[in-house]
Design brief:
The protein has 8 helices and no strands. With 278 residues, it is an all-alpha fold. The chain has one domain.
Amino acid sequence: MAYWETIFFWVTLVLFSLATGGYIYSIVFKNPAFMPKMTWLVALGLVALTVAIGARFQATGHLPWSGDYESSLMGGWFIIGGALLVGWRNPKLQGFSMATTPLVIFLMAYGYMQSPELTPMAASLKTIWLYIHVYFAWLAFGAYALAMAAGVLFLLKKRDAARPIQNPAYDRFPSLASLDELIFRYVVFGFITDTIMIAAGAVWAKDLWGSYWSWDPVETWSLVSWLIYGIAIHLRVTFGWRENRLAWLVISALSTVIITFFGINLVVSSSLHAFKVR
């Protein structure tokens, strides 16, 4: 890791951790006024993460697109950036940061334990298809993470609504109907960008390995993830799955995306997919 990258990496983790603790305090102690302050902490954390990414780019000469650690940096940036963007456009969606920040902390911690060393970009990655493929991959991951966040907020708010005395902190979240609609919209956006990611990856694979599809473990899991989210859309449109069932489905489905990006390298060392520097 570069010098400034190391500093701002840990600054980012500290800020995200403080914000997560603050969100928990706001919910447990029913203090909704505390929540916007934590969103500002998350925003500062995103600035620090951006600086860390910039420092790594300066040290390596390429954007952090490969390896578990670099994937955790860019994945975290897209997830937090997306959560802050929707919260900026609609203050009632600031709670999305509460649901996504712990996920990003986990991803960054995992990435740091894997391969944080500075490495040159592999020759197989030096193509425009890398940027198209990975850009849409992170857009899809970010959208699926926001769908998960909407699902978490929906379940929390619905459970609170059944209590005799409601928690005023949940008043800062959108209505249950709005959250239910947002779950579906983010899944659709993620599914479209996921489709583009797979298509771009197939074109890249044809140029790199000689075939559009080779049933590589990462390819297979990305297909599994794509099918699950496609099924979620089908269940919503055709069978009317809504509310609790859809919320639990998208929360669970995110695990397949995490396995695709990070889990394969734990159990498979022979993957052809360019998720790690060679």
